[in-house]
Amino acid sequence: MSTQPFVHQEIEALQIAGIKTVVEKRADIMPLFEPLRQACGDAVCGPAMAIYHFGAVKDGFLVEAAFPVSHRVETGTIHTRRLEEARAWTAVHHGPLETIRETTSALIEHARARAGSLGGQREIYLVLDLEDPEQSVTEIQFTRHEWDRLLAEGLERELGGMARARVMAGIEQIAPESPQELYTEWIRSAMDALDSLTDDAAEKYQVLSCCAHVFPEERIDYLRSVYEQRRDIDDVLKEMYQDPDWYEDPVRTGNVLHMRKVPYDPNGYEHGTTAVERRRAYCHCAFVRPYLDEVPSRMSPTFCWCGSGWYRRLWEGILGQPVKIEHVETLLNGNDQCMLTITLPLSVGGEMGPERAS
Predict the structure, then answer these.
(1) Which terminus of the chain is more exposed, N or C, with fewer CB under 10 A?
(2) SS3 168
(3) What's the whole-number mean pLDDT along residues 143-167?
(4) Contact between residue 44 and residue 37 where contact means Cβ atoms under 8 Å apart
(5) What phi and psi values does residue 262 have, to the nearest 5 degrees?
(6) In the structure, what pLDDT confidence band is assigned to residue 356 with cuts at 50, 70 and 90?
(7) CA 346 to CA 340: how far, in whole Å?
(8) For 43, phi and psi rounded to 5 degrees?
(9) What's this model's pTM, rounded to 2 decimal places?
(10) Distance between CA 309 and CA 215 in Å, rounded?
(11) Residue 232 and residue 241: Cα distance in Å, rounded?
(12) How far, in Å, CA of 108 to CA of 296, rounded?
């Protein structure tokens, strides 16, 4: 097994034909490629690839086995789509797929030490030799979550070009290879600049909630189908209570959902011996954790409107209507947990919680 140096590069858009399926392990992906190749025939114009849709299912993981194709291929199980262009951290792994975890872990460590945030994972099988795995060559790609681009777009949309220029000042000096510490400090200063422009929480919400990581589409699609079929929000909540690690057991009072974010590291949070240890174990965000040692934090609580976007995408995706989100407690305000409320655009009475669902 060997690797080449880690490289940050622009990945061009591709038209791909693929099969989405749930697998238990990487080896389960390999048998998908030969029948897929045969079905695509002369449309295939590039190497096999796997696109991971992490978090989409409760058990196993959802993967898309695919080939680049020159024209559309559609069958009962094969679908063609555009794989959008992306910026990504990449590494080339030489050797069997059984040892690819070592290269993947090293690439993640490299990327997390540098400016930006990781998005999705892809594997491109440049040489796939199942008879002699030592000859296999795999390019690993971790796309970047374009947080600063999304921030700039939100500023332009909600507050205008002058606000965008003021808040985004300095981002041009940060390159992909810049240290993560430099990037997080730029984010801290950007939040200060945003605070100087507006005190309106609703405006900050509109700007920042669209910067959040994308909630898995498959989960949203399923819960939307539950709601559309039954038109009972409590049936959606009952589905959520089956997977509390993902949905965090929302409690409904009338049309308001009360959310308490689950700790990132439950064991560290439970057994932390200091308030700082507990806050660091609780927080999910790598941009926030460096600023949790002090109360009040140097990072403005404004940043936490970003995290609200996770819930915004979920609930607006389910209902097809805007929801109202308000922070109740955040670590950046000195609280020891993060809590928020989600007001649904529904007329509903009574209460619902996990203990009532059985």
Answers:
(1) C
(2) coil
(3) 97
(4) yes
(5) -75, 150
(6) confident
(7) 18
(8) -75, -20
(9) 0.93
(10) 9
(11) 15
(12) 31
Nearest to 315 by CA among 287, 284, 345, 272: 345
Asked if 158 contacts 207 with a C-beta cutoff of 8 angstroms, the reply is yes
Give the other-Cβ count within 10 Å of 277's Cβ.
15
Q: Which residues pair with 121 in a beta bridge?
A: 52, 142
Per DSSP (E only), the strands in the chain are: 2-3, 7-11, 14-23, 48-53, 61-68, 79-83, 86-94, 118-127, 137-144, 251-253, 256-260, 324-329, 339-343, 351-352
Provide the 3-class DSSP secondary structure of residue 223: helix
Cα 41 to chain centroid distance, Å, stands at 34
- pLDDT digits 0-9 by tens, 56-99: 999 999 999 999 999 999 999 999 999 999 999 999 999 999 99
Work out the burial of residue 187: count CB atoms within 10 Å of its CB; fewer than 13 is exposed, 13-18 middle, 19 or more buried. Answer: buried
| H or E element at residue 233 | helix 233-240
Domain at 2-144: CATH architecture:
Alpha-Beta Barrel (3.20)
Cβ pair 11, 86 in contact under 8 A: yes
Q: Which residue bears the tokens 């994308």?
A: 214
Residue 219 CB neighbours (<10 A): 21
Q: Is the pLDDT of residue 3 over 80?
A: no
Pairing mode, strands 61-68 and 251-253: unpaired
87 Cβ contact list (under 8 Å, min separation 6) = 8, 9, 10, 11, 143, 144, 146, 176
Q: How far apart are CA 335 and CA 275, in angstroms?
A: 10
Q: What does the alpha-carbon distance between residue 15 and residue 72 come to, in Å, rounded to a whole number?
A: 8
Q: Determine the Cα–Cα distance for residues 185 and 299; give it in Å rounded to an integer.
A: 9
Domain boundaries, the chain: 2-144, 147-211, 217-357
Nearest Cα residue to 173 out of 190, 159, 153, 150 = 190
3-state helix vs strand vs coil in the chain, percent to 5: 45, 25, 30
